[in-house]
Amino acid sequence: MALAPFANEPTLELRRAAVREELLDSLRKLDRRLPLRAPTLLGGESRGGEELLSTDPGEPERIVALAPRSGAEEARAAVDVASASASGWAHEPVERRAEALLGAARWMRERRGELAALCVRECGKPWLEADADVAEAIDFLEYYARRALALQGKDDGSAPLLLQAPGERNTISYRPRGVCAVIAPWNFPLAIPTGMSAAALVSGNSVVLKPAEQAPGCGAKVAEALRAGGVPADVLCLLQGEAEAGAALVADERVQTIAFTGSARVGVEIMRAAAEVRTGQRDIKRVIAEMGGKNCVLIDSDADLDEAVPAIVTSAFAYAGQKCSAASRLLVHESIASLLGERLAGAVQRLRVGQAEEFGVDLGPLIERQAAERLDRYREVAEAQGAEVVSGAEGADFDGAGWFRRPLLVSGLPSDSEILREEIFAPLLAFEAVKDLDAALERVDELPFALTGGLFCRDPHTVERVAARMPVGNLYVNRHITGAMVARHPFGGNRLSGSGFKAGGPDYLLQFMQASVLSENVMRHGLVVS
Amino acid sequence: MAEREQIFEVGRELLQGLDAARSGPLKALDRRGMDLATEDAELRAALLRFVDVAPACRSVDDLASHLLSYLDELHQRPVSLDVAIRMGSSRAGRAALGSAALAGVRHVAHRFIVGETAHDAAKVLRGLWGEGAASSVDLLGEATVTAAEADRYAARCAETLGTLAQLYGALPAQPTLERDGAGPIPRANLSVKVSALTPLLRAEAPELGERDAAPRLRELLRLARRLDAHLHVDMESYDSREAVADLVLSLLSEPEFADGPSVGLVVQAYLRDSPELCERVIAWAQSSGRVPPLVVRLVKGAYWDHEVVDARQHGWQPPVFEHKRESDRNFELLTRRLLQARPHVRPAIASHNLRSVAYAIVANRELGGAERDVEFQVLRGLGDELGQALAAAGLRVRVYCPVGDLVAGMAYLVRRLLENTANESFLAEQARGLPLEQLLAAP
In chain A, what residues touch B142 (CB-CB under 8 Å)? Predict the structure, then answer.
């Protein structure tokens, strides 16, 4: 199966008016169809419901999707279906599985506008981000299809990976693990569930996908795409539900792999639950967890502030800071701290908060009431701790309906403030002046998280030195620290930020497989038969 | 005589004028400095990175350590730089190296930047006027990321307009520079950047930046009209083009600006869709009936690398022609189109390419235009000699003059240096001694 080399799916060229108009048209069409039905899918069976509903975070009166609140019983039923189909799917040739991913990519490509519009509505993602989400979903499908083919052809004997002694033949092959539970977040409501599911499927596992309860509509689209591409119905189940459904999947003795992206608290809980071996269980569950961050951007004295300011603002506040890669701490060389502080405050003031569907809006709403209230509490903490809080988006006038909040720039926090430690997942950036980069590196090193990091500096020697000492999984130099691209910036954290190999990277699929080695004696009575 | 021969004849004359203009020994020295940077791409990049970071360095020691870091990355270092590396090993050596490097930046900056303020630039601007060249002043400065910065830039523009009006008001008459077939041409001329007039330029929401920049630009237009000065709105990257074009045309459509001031726009010939913008501007100029006529500066475009890299990173087709030849060809088509669109527009041909300039001169003659009905623009520091040659030939010349802090300003000019030292540029070709036939060949 010969495929063109992987290339990232181009994002839409939103600087062209006609492209923008097409997206708005897609949104109008989507609005006419709301609310969508997002049932739980158990093989050929579809169980609808209305207990779980997603609403537009910018206008909570608007219902986007209606789903059932499936629980332990449906989780059990889903694993029944997936474990029954696992062996058959595992024995399909990898080409067929890869073909299903490519088919799903085509299906999504034909619905770019519709899918982006759904992201806008269900998760409050501004267009730029919503479109990037769709493009990334397509990237995962295209990339993992190619990686699976590459891995399969890896040890075909022509260039063996294993050492071969005379008289023996050694080969290694990668096989599926079985049933994979995919537990996905709402913040990349298409890309992340697509990526995790596609990786598991193309590696030969059957999948039970549980989308975030905030994004059942997007989750349903992911399942629809994969099935339309050629993944059999019984190989991919869709479980719409909340924590109960997720916990039941994790505990099920027939689930071998759990792919999770979300908070560190839940991730660690999953690992704890997965460590318990239950009656009838035959595998050590493997947990692939991508978790939170407390991402720091370091600014050296020689930074180009003209470039740093917009990049910091994007890193901290795009999608209202609701990305695990978003910047939440800024550590600034003291010689430029006041200048940068002033420019940054001015830049934060001119940010725009508004409905995600309006082009040019920087911060849409937060995902839900609790998220907005959590930010309010952190703000109160900052003020109680005597910090200076710059409240951005001057002149923004948003009515009370959606979960809108102003971006916050906080400085002067005590060094032991929880705001400097905890993942807030909202538009709050803490600003700290430091004596030099070494002091900044010490502060970074104190953190248990190590997902992304940034550095603005124009001395190549310093860049090298900082890169060697930053513990993070992804370090970005002289650019924004979000927006990792498949195959270009394989993504994933170190320390408490994650347990997995990098998503969108060359090794990611290996986690969904197990290796088997075959060593054959090829000597018969002194004769080597090969 | 066929067009080809005419272009050769005009080109040959201009080249003679160029040679005469560069006979001074000091100029030869300056050119060698640039040549050094042109020959070795890695070294050139290292030096440009140094120029770029210089304003952010805290001390001479810091300057030296940055310079050494860049030189350290070179795979092949010219022997002449070994001295610099040795100096870097001691504190005193670094101080000397840092100071020398800073002096170097200032020296080069003097060639491109006419003064820290318009007031400081008075001597240079008067000198140019005396030699038969008008100017357009461009204020260098940091990027605008806040409303306060946009206000500060607008205030600098206003102040500069006043200074220029006063300065040029006191100069003797230069008939070639002050009038064409369409009427009087203002002496004072300021180029402004919309990206500096608002922090809200967004590619996906052009109306945001337009709305935010409009009040500041409107004030400048009013002031320019009061002072009888020309305001030229520069074009920048493709991301902001829609906003800039819409902003200028919509402001000029407001009744209060029906009779002035003189205003200009830019068409970038390296853009594939530049003919559409050119037609739109011409159609607008024809239907608006506004006087004085809109000046249209035709350039190749200074953001080529940015546009190509940005488009490739996104998987888009670059909005620019990818071969210089295509841009050159389009430049000639648009030159002719603009010349034909007179008197509704005033074309200003801004190029250092001998062929492009010669083509414009010949096309103008072919169309029966008077010499004074087309303007030629060059960049200070890069096109000085071409400007002198054109002025000596009796043509109307305007020099685009950056004004600003020498060291910081130089960093903002790095982009233009990059363009100048790119392999395909005319100046580089000329420096390599390509024969006239090749320099003047049709693109």
Answer: 305-306
